[in-house]
Amino acid sequence: MNIKIKKIKIKSNNICYGPAPEPEDEVEQVLTIAKTGKVWFYGYKYIGTRSRSIINNIGEKSAYLIFELISKWIDTGLCCYATDVGTWNMVITDENNKLYKFDGSLMEDLIVDGIAISETIRDIVNIEDMLVFDGNKEECIDN
Asked: Is 77 left (phi over 0), alpha (psi -120 to 50) or beta?
């Protein structure tokens, strides 16, 4: 599938089975990256209010790198699902405004050619504690 990506929107939600989060805990994030490099990031607390709002620009080349990794991952057709972890949903808009929808569980990073997509997005976008596709598992272990 050769999608010419115009924009990606990744919605990550780390609510899962077990104890309920505290009302002020950030449990949902929405990350949108446009072909132009513009980035919108919003975090939401368990009580439903916005906890963070960040808008910046990573440049077209960085957006292209992220889009290429995601395109390659789509071609693999691989995705892992579990019932006791959070989830992610991704909507890709192509240059003809056609939408492609994907989803999975926040358990393992998506890997393409040995490159971890979530870690790459975190490095490029440079926003702390992003869930993306893997739930930021390393961050949880460090704390």
From this structure: left
What does each C-alpha distance from 84 to 4, 13, 16, 73 come to in angstroms? 34, 12, 6, 24
- Give tens-digit pLDDT for 38-59: 999 999 999 989 999 999 999 9
Strand partners, 44: 28, 50
Helix ranges restricted to H, the chain: 60-76, 117-125, 137-142
Architecture per CATH, 5-142: 2-Layer Sandwich (3.30)
Predicted pLDDT at 142: 35
Quote the pLDDT of residue 36.
97
Q: How far apart are CA 97 and CA 118, in angstroms?
A: 25
For the chain, state the CA radius of gyration: 15
Q: Give residue limits of the domains in the chain.
A: 5-142
Contacts of 140 (CB under 8 A, 6+ apart): none
101-124 pLDDT, tens digit per residue, is: 999 888 777 888 899 999 999 999
How many Cβ atoms from other residues are within 10 Å of residue 46's Cβ? 16
Q: Cα(21)–Cα(9) distance, rounded to whole angstroms? A: 24
